Sequence to fold (472 residues):
Amino acid sequence: MHFSIPETEVRLGENGSSYVAYNIHVNGVLHCRVRYSQLLGLHEQIKKEYGSNVVPAFPPKKIFTLTPAEVEQRREQLEKYMQAVRQDPLLGANEMFNGFLRKAQQETQQIPTEEVSLDICLSNGQKVTVNILTSDQTEDVLDAVATKLDLPDDLVGYFSLFLIREGADGGLTFVRKLQEFELPYVSITSLRNSEFHILLRKSYWDMAYDGDVMDNRVGLNLLYAQAVSDVERGWILVNKEQHRQLKSLQEKGSKKEFIHLGQTLKYYGYIKFDPCITDFPEKGCQVIVSAGSNELNFHVKLPSEQMKEGSFKVTRMRCWRVTSSQVPIANGTTNLCSASKCEVKLELSFEYLMSKERLQWVTITSQQAIMMSICLQSMVDELMVKKSGGSIKKMLRKRHNGSIHRSDSQQAVKAPPLLDSPDPNREQIVKLSTKLSSVSLRGISASNSANDISGNDFHGNYAFEGIGDDDL
Fold:
């Protein structure tokens, strides 16, 4: 998730006095408005629990009223603070932090806590209506959907809720996976757009886990509906004979056989993204990216109109990052702009091992860059559990006394603290031995300048180690 504070507002408090509100955006969309004092209170709570050595630096209090320049400086410092906390594997998963964001989101949107009905879409177009509270977090809503569908508790973690946008032509755009720091009802309601929906879809990549899910009737129906939908949308590649076989199995109601045949087809279980731009193999190429099977697949249209296909394996990505910048909506120039006249430009960049001794950066410019990053990280998580001999079941999050905890197998592969930001004027030094033992460094960065998307404030954390020549 990409956190930013692109703007501030002067608002009136209950006593009639004015104050500066800092607008926290997630993936370019307003999540909440908070005061400096609220963030300071959160910081003090986190520091009390984890100690000063773990918590990032927080901008100091000021005795006198801030000048516009000081407000801007504080905005930048608070933005870096929020990004650093979110990216830290310990602090970012803390219920104190996530609870603060949920409460702030609800207060900002001025939605009182009350019982409501919420529609959750299934892959076959059907909707499940669940009765929830407006203050229910993502896991609460997922549990409510599972209960309504009669999906067993031990299978709930195989699925997630996704925010999607359905176009007039029926096209599906994955915006993001709903997170623990947000309230699904508030998130969908605040968009005020009927094109947005919440979709239930499987959240794992390795098709070997399909067997666990298919042993249950409800799990089988959900996987079947997803497979049928992906075939109909053209996300799964089929020829005429395969299409005939699938149609025959569908007519017979042979759901397991349909899925088993689907598993043999190209792009089964992939998520397909909207057309975007890449600099590989050359700048300005149009590309359709799909994520699945531990890779990003590219369908690239070259300037010569020639089409090429290729795949980038996650095991060969040394690192990746998401960068953002603000660009004017009107003419796309790089002049400075106010937030109201700008749109957020997102890029996913990854450093890829092209050959034994050659690393190269590949960049994708897409509004779905963060969703792509989430896909990559979840692939890494699965691979790490598999390498450690663990099971995806042990990787699923459990709730204990109202807070979310990860299992021992997940704790074992948790990333260490954030890396220091590299010098932006110096190219990163990369040492390659004959065996590349560490091939992933994940991070998210933000660039506030309209003409700077290099990600000067780069934060990363090692999330994937132990990949050697056998994997390459």
